[in-house]
Amino acid sequence: MTTITFVRGDITRQSADAIVNAANSSLLGGGGVDGAIHRRGGPEILADCRRLRASHYGKGLATGRAVATTAGELDARWVIHTVGPVYSATEDRSELLASCYRESLRAADELGARTVAFPAVSAGIYGWPMEDAARIAVETVRATQTAVEKITFVLFDERAYDAFAAQPH
After folding, report:
1. Domain boundaries, the chain
2. Burial profile 127-154: b = 16 or more Cβ within 10 angstroms, e = fewer
């Protein structure tokens, strides 16, 4: 049975087997959660990402997919990078957002991770409305078969925390 918890805080300060990064498709760092993970995790994460780009992901990681690297200096064994969709008011991209969570849990299972920390994927610069992002995230992890024992959603601010904590879990 997987337990789901919510905390307000900085995902780069979490202790987990795997920390999920809301990455961009380049895998080479960026703003928001992605930049924070790369800064705090150190150069080992970027080096791993560069190796992935040089081998399997020459054109980058597709939206909705996930891939793991070392966690560098973070208090984790792995970082699972997933590329969330940019929100669109005219096109339903919710399945791509749900896929980020499913694919991250698949990667966690392949690694043997038992504890995973997630950010609110796509709810920052990608513009996904927070309440809808929370609903999709929590519903998806609840419905996904996984060996992960504890999923923690790490929310950066009170608004995000409130939106996630309001979800049935």
Report:
1. 3-165
2. ebebbebbbbbbebbeebebebeebbbb
